[in-house]
Design goal:
The chain is α/β, with parallel strands linked by helices and 1451 residues long. The protein contains 60 helices and 35 strands.
Length: 1451
């Protein structure tokens, strides 16, 4: 067809497979045709009139003789065998006619010419009793313009009936024997000629002659051939002539030979009769061993089909009988299916497949990847590798969408590009060569779309090595074969095709060589101590979990000795433990896997967790913290393996959202169980996840448990988290009832176990082949590792490319946890070209040096099966990195070389992962919360370079990375940080602006820009610190400070607009810079040397007054500086409100991107109290001896200085109780003596009331505190429209108007209305404040609890509990609050008052006046009973409204 292109090998300058003998004559080439793939110019354009100057051309076979309605095509310029004469009368003789001129004639002339040639040839064949075929569109002369004899050219056929009707000339040419002629001359056959450069359809027209003895016996045929006479413009018949075949020609029998020809009729008849009889006695064709051929093709010469190999199936319509024999397909590791049967989902292969296996239905357009989308995201979107992708390539009959089947021509116009893109995406970006095999299963007539699919795979896979064709019908195979022969030799096509094997035989043969039965029976334990069958389809629906079944690994074939040794050897070299290790050990095939002490600890914690406990949640966590490479993952999997018969166990696969995992975990728990209340707990292993993910998953599972109304305290899910840490023992001490540590250090018992195991292993292997185990048994002693690496690298070739690869891998493994390089990348670097897949791994390993073979650990991705390598252990990688450094080499130069390895950077397979590791190498900062040794400001590599080398090297490295990563804004941000660290502020400013220009709405980048000016301002202040400060020498610093404030304002705006996160850094930094600027201003000579300097300074900042000394030097700054006080006030209020809502002790794991604040405020409450006081100090008089002389503004600032400026600072006095009572009394003294007559602003009223409440909490007997009634009256100054109330005011209303027992019904009703109105608006504000951030990241903070007292004495601050719990250790305290036991402590129970209520459909209610319902949200949702119960609870007060704590069902 016209849209087909040459193979990739031809485009790349190589000769195509099967065409090595071709060479082009340059005289015939034109360059005006750009073919579709990669828009490569293909030098083979020729018109039908221009001869194709091949010096040697590919042979081809003719269409099978006397076969009608078969799929068969010719390829233009292929060459048929030369014309032939009669051989054995049955094998047809052949005659060729180019017919190029005649095919263009009108109907009458064309028919006359065609009939003349056919009837001459027919008479010749019939007279000598030989079968024959005459071909029109095949060159019959060697001297015909450069064509060769037998070359297929084709002729245009406008109307096929013209050729069919031309044989009506039989009656005029052979009037006597016309019936005989009709019986022996078959109708014309039109064989399509494929020409990839032409859009015109061309055909070879063929007529078969079959002179059966029953028809021609005793006859000699003479006839008068038709001939169009131009002179008379009509058809005339030539004289009657007898024709015969002589050699390769048809000639008339001369008059002198005519009698002899007639006399020998009987001889010819006898020969024909004998030939016809003998054709049925010919021995059958040699029978190929198709079973062995199929086995070899599917296994690549191995004993079994490879477990790790992915398969792609291309197929068309299945016959009903064949659908009964697809068990082999169900057991294949199927990546995707290209299905050309529109009815497949209704009655075809798809319908049968999805009855047993999970599949996602897609169309060709599903494989169109949008610009900007990564391959990883695309794979996740389509769930590739999780479930089979079933691609309907020609519509789907049962689909209601716009995806209808179409005919071949429409398909070619509309679907070809989509098919090409899909195949290219799979072969070029998703599956590396050698990891998959394509099976063409031809079960019905082959149509052109299927042929195009073969061509696309053949070109993108660069050959046929991993393509297999299976076809039962030889008839269906013919068209496939002739098409495939365009790209490769006939013998090559035959070599990868299995033709003539029944589907039932294919099924039986392939099932015999499948190593694992995917649909083998697997079982799960059930609540009543039995087992249930886990259906494969159901298992695949829970794709985010690797489910561990009771009979896990039993479905594998018996392991041979070699496989057993390989599994054991890989583990003790440093590979991750597999389920096969445990299975083999359990069955005694290999030695047992050592149980570390941590295994027993986890088992005990697990046993404790599994006990039903009303004080324990339904979702619990056990954390394993381990040194990298110490065996933490092995311990965790050992726990799962040994629990699989008693619990439902699964490993959470990486890269799935917590919501998806939670959904699948719930499905696993309830699978084949009748009652959700009676299910076995699910033990989930989560490896290398952060706290945020764990909290999210726990929250999702708790919500699910809550929805299911499972009794509180019933163990439902146990999350076994396994995370690396540089100090596991410290983590263990923090929470001994939840955390377990696994370290490199061995206990005495473990040392004995390791020593015994080492003796056994060293009898089997040389020590260097079990390196990791040997190092582990030596506790990874520093000297031992150093000596080991020194010995290993003794004779290494430093100039070798393999050594360079070792160095690169060591660099990545040292600085990027869990990093690796794909084998495909390694092969690209080593410039390996491996043609035969069956030798692929052997060739790769052969290319490695002895040292590389020892230190490289070969990994295989569990999901994609893509292979990769890493160093056997992180500590070994660190040591190799150091020892491979030569005299002049540095880590920066090595990293620079790695960046500049274009072959690695641009290699397409595994590119996303490689680039993510490379990116992390330069950007990922160390975080203790992620298990790193320390917190760092830059990536560990950059830290090492700047400390051990110099800052210039670090900058140079980041600049190169910036260019390599397409000028990524985050690299520019890192460069800004690096420059300002070394006080190179101009450069820092440049890079910050570059980053901000690319990402103008990213608050973290805008924060960095502000930090540049903040640090610059600090440096400028430091420079003039020792000199007398004048307006002139401080102007530059002031300008920089104002620029910093401007940048932080932009940062704040972006942070508030961002609905996904809340970056508070801009607000904190604005206050920092503002206070520093105030310090600078107040230190000016103009203010500091005067008697009333402070008053002058304050006057300048808050009024229109400008000292003459400042007027000109600070002319541009007066406006912004006079707004500074108001600006700081607003920012401090925002921070106060933010901290009032949420807990401040939550440490969320930062993402592995630079998106985290520059400066982290560790103790924000202390910071706010300090800064508020500092701010107040600048704007208040230094002496407070005479408050009466102060203006309202000065009093407000004085209050601020004392810590009463905002609600958070006031409440902080309850935490930091040093001089708190005295300070609070002093604050109250600054307020008017009669507040009811004073006009307070709303914030002043809030602060005044909260000060009284706080003072009452600290000093219950003080006389300075107003009564509850007075404060209630004062609160009437709040706006009646609650929408205008600040959150603090609404919070205060919920406290003041919470009803008391002695209130009258009317008073209670009035109070409830006020509280309900306040709560309604608090909830609105809360939702706005929360944005789209998960609750676990911003947990609401409970300030007060309802106590057993009265008036203001009924409010109990949370800090009061600490007096009770201070006797406990930190871990015990955490555990008591976690389990809820703290609420039961007598001292705490005495302080608080239990409130009665009830639950209805999972909602907690309190009875208001006139039996009105008052909803109280629970602080901890899972604590709400699922049945409708009478309950009691403690009442907490938050900025979201009242909450219910420690909900207890009345007994």
């Amino acid at each position: 067809m016209s849209f087909l292109t040459p193979s990739k090998s031809l485009r790349r300058g190589k000769r195509p497979l099967g065409a090595q003998k071709w060479s082009l004559s340059r005289k015939t080439l034109s360059s005006n045709q750009i073919l579709r793939k990669d828009q490569d110019v293909v030098e083979e354009t020729q018109t039908a009139q221009e001869p194709c100057m091949w010096t040697s051309k590919e042979d081809c076979k003719p269409r099978p003789f006397d076969k009608e309605d078969i799929d068969f095509t010719y390829v233009k310029h292929r060459v048929l065998q030369p014309e032939s004469g009669a051989f054995n009368l049955i094998s047809p003789c052949h005659e060729y006619k180019s017919f190029a001129v005649a095919a263009t004639l009108d109907r009458t002339r064309l028919q006359a010419k065609f009939a003349k040639e056919v009837l001459r040839f027919a008479a010749g064949c019939m007279n000598i009793r030989s079968n024959g075929t005459i071909h029109f569109g095949v060159m019959d002369s060697k001297d015909n313009g450069g064509y060769v004899h037998g070359e297929i050219i084709g002729v245009p056929v406008k109307e096929k009936d013209m050729y069919v009707d031309a044989l009506d000339h039989i009656e005029g040419s052979f009037p006597i024997n016309k019936e005989h002629i009709r019986q022996c001359v078959r109708p014309p056959q039109f064989i399509e000629v494929i020409d990839r450069k032409s859009t015109e359809k061309m055909y070879v027209v063929e007529v078969d002659i079959v002179p059966s003895i029953s028809v021609v016996k005793g006859k000699v045929y003479s006839g008068r051939l038709p001939n169009f006479k131009e002179s008379s413009n009509k058809i005339e018949h030539e004289k009657e002539t007898v024709f015969r075949r002589v050699g390769s020609k048809t000639e008339p029998v001369s008059d002198k030979d005519l009698n002899d020809f007639h006399e020998r009729v009987k001889d010819r008849d006898a020969q024909r009769e004998e030939a016809e009889k003998s054709q049925f006695l010919i021995a059958p064709d040699f029978c190929q061993d198709l079973g062995r051929k199929l086995t070899m093709l599917m296994t690549s010469g191995k004993k079994f089909i490879e477990k790790e190999k992915w398969f792609i199936l291309v197929t068309n319509k299945f016959k009903p009988d064949d659908l009964c024999n697809i068990d082999w397909l169900l057991d294949m590791n199927m990546f995707c299916v290209f299905d050309f049967d529109p009815d497949s989902k209704i009655s075809g292969l798809c319908s049968k497949y999805i009855a047993h296996r999970a599949a996602n239905i897609h169309f060709l357009q599903s494989y169109r990847i949008s610009s900007g989308m990564s391959i990883e995201a695309f794979i996740s979107q389509l769930h590739l590798f999780d479930q089979t992708s079933w691609i309907f390539c020609n519509g789907r009959a049962d689909y209601r969408g716009n995806e209808i089947p179409c005919d071949e021509m429409v398909w070619i116009q509309t679907k070809t590009t989509l098919l090409r893109e899909a195949v290219s995406l799979i072969c070029k970006q998703i599956l590396p060569k050698g990891t998959f095999k394509v099976i063409f299963l031809l079960t019905s007539l082959v149509e052109n779309p299927l042929l195009h699919t073969f061509y696309e795979f053949f070109t993108d896979m660069e050959g046929h090595e991993d393509i297999t064709c299976i076809c039962e019908s030889e008839h269906n195979f013919q068209k496939w074969q002739s098409f495939a022969e365009r790209s490769c030799r006939t013998e090559t096509v035959n070599s990868f095709s299995v033709v003539g094997m029944k589907m039932s035989h294919v099924n039986a043969t392939l099932q015999h060589i499948q190593p694992v039965k995917a649909c083998a029976k697997k079982h799960l334990p059930v609540f009543v101590k039995g087992k249930c069958l886990l259906e494969t389809q159901e298992e695949e629906q829970m794709y985010s979990l690797e489910i561990l079944t009771v009979d896990h690994c039993d479905e594998s074939k018996d392991f041979n000795i070699e496989e057993k040794e390989k599994i054991e050897h890989q583990f003790y070299r440093g590979g991750r433990v597999t389920w096969s290790n445990f299975w083999l050990a359990e069955h005694g095939y290999i030695g047992e896997v050592i149980e570390r002490d941590a295994y027993c600890e986890i088992s005990n914690l697990l046993s404790s967790t599994l006990k039903t406990n009303p004080d324990q949640g339904s979702v619990n966590c056990i954390n394993i913290y381990h040194h990298p490479g110490s065996g933490g993952s092995t311990v965790a999997k050992q726990v799962l393996w040994n629990s699989r018969k008693d619990l439902r166990c699964a490993v959470v696969k990486p890269s799935y959202s917590a919501s998806v995992v939670a959904q699948h975990a719930v499905e696993l728990r309830e699978y084949e169980e009748k009652d959700p209340q009676k299910c076995l707990p699910v033990l989930l292993l989560i490896e290398d996840s952060n706290n945020e993910y764990l909290d999210d998953l726990k929250n999702q599972l708790e919500v699910a448990v809550n929805i299911k109304r499972i009794q509180f305290g019933t163990p439902c899910f146990i999350l076994l988290s396994c995370r690396r840490s540089h100090d596991p023992e410290k983590k263990c001490k923090e929470s001994p009832l939840q955390n377990v540590s696994v370290t490199h250090k061995l206990s005495d018992q473990e040392k004995r176990k390791f020593a015994a195991k080492r003796q056994v292993l060293e009898k089997q292997y040389e020590p260097e082949f079990i390196l990791t185990f040997v190092l582990m048994s030596e506790e990874f002693a520093e000297n031992y590792v150093k000596q080991f690496v020194k010995h290993l690298l003794q004779d290494i070739d430093h100039e070798s490319i393999v050594t360079r690869l070792i160095h690169y891998v060591a660099l990545l493994n040292t600085y990027v946890p869990n990093s690796f390089i794909s084998q495909s990348h390694c092969e690209a670097l080593l410039a390996l070209t491996i043609y035969m897949e069956r030798f692929h791994q052997y060739e790769f390993e052969k290319s490695l040096s002895d040292q590389a073979k020892l230190v490289f650990l070969h990994l295989r991705d569990d999901k994609t099966h893509i292979q990769s390598i890493r160093i056997i252990h992180p500590l070994v990688a660190q040591e190799i990195l150091q020892q491979l450094m030569r005299n002049s080499q540095t880590q920066s130069s090595l990293a620079m070389n790695l960046l500049c390895e274009n072959v690695l950077f641009e290699h397409r397979f595994g590119q996303d992962e490689y680039l993510s590791f490379l990116r992390a190498l330069f950007i990922r900062r160390s975080r203790i919360s992620r298990g790193d040794e320390y917190d760092s400001f830059f990536s560990p590599l950059i830290e090492v370079v700047r400390k051990n080398e110099n800052s210039e090297k670090a900058i140079e490295l980041l600049k190169e990375a910036y260019q390599c990563f397409h000028r990524d804004a985050f690299f520019a941000q890192q460069l800004a940080r690096l420059h300002y660290t070394y006080e190179k502020f101009e450069d820092a400013k440049h890079w910050a602006e570059v980053a901000a220009k690319q990402m103008p709405n990213n608050s973290y980048i805008l924060d960095t820009k502000g930090q540049v000016y903040k640090k610059w301002f600090t440096a400028k202040c430091k420079a003039i610190d020792s000199v007398q400060k004048t307006p002139e020498n401080t102007a530059d610093a002031v300008e920089t400070a104002l620029k910093a404030l401007e940048c932080f304002a932009e940062c704040e705006k972006a942070a508030v607009a961002d609905m996904e996160t809340m970056n508070r850094s801009g607000f904190f930094c604005e206050v920092d810079v503002g206070c520093s600027l105030l310090t600078l201003i107040s230190s000016l000579q103009v203010f500091s040397n005067r008697t009333y300097g402070h008053s002058e300074c304050m006057k300048y900042l808050v009024t229109d007054y400008i000292p003459k000394e400042l007027k000109d030097p600070w002319k541009p700054f007066h406006g912004p500086l006079k707004k500074l006080q108001e600006r700081l006030q607003e920012t401090l209020e925002w921070i106060s409100e933010e901290l009032s809502y949420f807990q401040t002790d939550i440490v969320a794991d930062e993402d592995e991107t630079p998106e985290s604040p520059e400066e982290k405020i560790s103790y924000p409450l202390i910071w706010l109290a300090k800064k508020s006081s500092e701010y107040g100090k600048y704007f208040s008089e230094s002496s407070l001896l005479n408050p009466a002389s102060l203006t309202p503004f000065m009093k407000r600032m004085a209050i601020c200085q004392l810590g009463g400026g905002n609600i958070t600072s006031i409440l902080y006095k309850l935490t930091d109780q040093k001089d708190a009572v005295q300070l609070l009394e002093c604050i109250l003294s600054l307020y008017p003596s009669d507040p009811f007559k004073s006009k307070f602003c709303q914030r002043d009223v809030v602060n005044y009331i909260v000060t009284h409440i706080s003072l009452k909490c600290l000093s219950p007997n003080t006389l300075s505190v107003a009564s509850l009634k007075d404060l209630q009256t004062l609160s009437h100054q709040f706006p009646t429209d609650k929408q205008k109330c600040f959150p603090g005011a609404l919070f205060v209303l919920t406290l003041l108007f919470w009803p008391e027992e002695h209130d009258t019904d009317q008073e209670k009703e009035t109070k409830f209305e006020i509280v309900q109105s306040a709560v309604e608006h608090l909830e609105k504000n809360y939702k706005h404040k929360m944005k789209d951030i998960p609750q676990r990241k911003r947990r609401i903070y409970t300030h007060f609890f309802l106590g057993s007292g009265s008036g203001l004495g009924k409010f109990v601050h949370k800090k009061k509990f600490e007096k009770v719990t201070k006797v406990l250790s930190v871990s015990e305290k955490r555990m008591k609050w976690f389990t809820g036991e703290a609420w039961k402590m007598p001292a705490i129970a005495e302080m608080l008052k239990r409130v009665s209520g009830w639950t209805e459909d999972g909602v907690v209610h309190l009875e208001g006046p006139q039996k009105k319902k008052f909803i109280i949200p629970p602080l901890y949702v899972p604590s709400v009973p699922h049945s409708n119960e009478n309950v009691t609870f403690y009442l907490g007060f938050t900025f979201k409204g009242p909450v219910a704590c420690n909900i207890t069902v009345n007994k």
